[in-house]
Design goal:
This protein is mainly beta. It is built from two helices and 34 strands. The protein has four domains: about 1-60, no CATH class; about 85-115, no CATH class; about 125-185, no CATH class; about 195-390 and about 400-405, Jelly Rolls (Sandwich), CATH 2.60.120. Helix content is about 5%, strand content about 35%. A hairpin with an 8-residue loop joins strand 8 and strand 9 (about 115). The longest helix is centred in the last third of the chain and has 14 residues, at about 375-385.
């Protein structure tokens, strides 16, 4: 038997020579061993063949720790009273006081007496994200139970964690006990010169026929003649109430209003407005049928503009009227020059029979003054959020993602 380095040569049992991957000594190949290391919870081969002297013990720091399960909780625990075991509770040397973890007590040195109660931390309310964004149908949520109120008046039998907004409280400052206030912007914020007809309320019906529709400021639209009444639908507009109209539908406005005329032009499939003899036209094919459309028309001395679904589509420098109009609804028919708003009527005009709009109307707003650009955007945001159709607004509209609110 002959030796070559640390390798042995046996003619009767020939074994290959091999080098150790660490010390490069010569060994018989069977005498070399694989080096293993911890990888997570298991040993893995590193690919190194080493001699006995070079073989390392696997490094435990590479091994994953397996923590035991948490202790099982017990009923009625009795923890140590650390609060009263402390000898001092002042936060600073100058005597400033600090507050405990439950935010409800001011803790002082034991020599100063027992803990002193603090004023309760005010509640915080928010609107649960939803399609109406805070208007009727939304749910308000408080972080603690308390009495809900509107404009400082308690809401009967509402003292839990949540409160459902109803249409009668839209525009009121809502609170839960001592919480912050949330107040939604409404058309009443535009002043007494603004009349808002909203199909969700203030309707007088004879069966399903609408005989009178009251505005928010006391102006009303009443039956013009039997057989010309719009028909009430409780869920015809995106699940909300609306007035369904035909070519013969119309309601007369109380007092002596001077409305701009808002007209559907079937030849060009568009809206145009007549403002004290001046006209402003929207682009052709800008008023599609069977789609929710929001039309806003604002005019003042020397200028006027038409906005559709929150975007300005036409401007004019010929207006000699100062008025603002908003309409939200769906046009379902065409073929005639339909008067959505007449001089002293809405949804049609008696002087031109069979000129009513074929469609569904959710809201009409008329003001005898011009709204500012900011008010126009608030009005559009309010209307679409009240009826869950904010998706029709363009991406850049300030109230595309959230409705307008008022800081209280």
């Amino acid at each position: 038997m002959n030796y070559h380095g640390k390798a042995r040569v046996n003619p009767r049992n020939l074994q290959a020579f091999a080098l150790c991957d660490r010390c490069f000594g010569v060994y018989n190949h069977p005498d070399l061993q694989w080096q293993f290391e911890w990888r997570g919870n298991s040993l893995q081969n590193t690919g190194y063949l080493v001699c006995r002297r070079c073989l390392d013990i696997p490094q435990e720091q590479f091994r994953a720790l397996i923590l035991p399960p948490d202790p099982v909780p017990i009923a009625n625990p009795r923890p140590y009273p650390y609060l009263y075991a402390e000898t001092g509770f002042r936060a600073t040397a100058d005597g400033s006081l600090r507050i405990t973890e439950d935010d409800n007590y001011r803790v002082v040195d034991m020599d100063d007496g027992p803990p002193v109660p603090l004023e309760p931390i005010p509640r915080v309310i928010s609107v649960i994200p939803g399609a109406t964004g805070g208007y009727a149908g939304s749910t308000y949520l408080s972080d603690r139970t308390g009495q809900w109120s509107a404009n400082g008046t308690d809401i009967p039998e509402q003292n839990g964690l949540s409160w459902p907004m109803t249409i009668g409280y839209e525009g009121d400052a809502i609170r839960c006990a001592d919480s912050n206030a949330i107040r939604m912007w409404t058309f009443d914020d535009l002043g007494a010169n603004t009349s808002e007809w909203d199909a969700r309320h203030r309707l007088q019906l004879s069966g399903l026929n609408v005989t009178q529709w009251d505005a928010s400021n006391g102006v009303y639209a009443a039956q013009t003649a039997p057989g010309q009444d719009p028909v009430y639908s409780s869920n015809g507009f995106n699940g909300f109430p609306c007035l369904v109209t035909t070519t013969s539908s119309r309601l007369s406005i109380s007092g002596s209003p001077t409305f701009p005329q808002v007209i559907f032009d079937p030849n060009n499939v568009r809206v145009y407005a007549e403002l004290n003899g001046s006209a402003i036209l929207a682009p052709p094919n800008s008023w599609p049928a069977n789609e929710v459309v929001l039309i806003t028309i604002v005019s003042s001395s020397g200028s006027a503009k038409i906005r559709i679904n929150g975007s300005t589509v036409a401007t004019s420098g010929t207006s000699n009227a100062t008025q603002s109009v908003l309409w939200l609804g769906v046009r379902t028919g065409g073929g005639v020059f339909s008067r959505l708003i007449g001089i002293n009527q809405i949804l049609g005009r008696s002087e031109q029979p069979d000129s009513g709009l074929i469609g569904q109307t959710a809201k009409i707003v008329r003001a005898t003054d011009r709204w500012s650009d900011a008010d126009v955007e608030r009005a559009e945001g309010c209307a679409v959020w009240q009826y869950k159709v904010a998706s029709i607004l363009p991406a850049g509209h300030p109230y595309k993602l959230a409705p307008p609110t008022i800081t209280v």
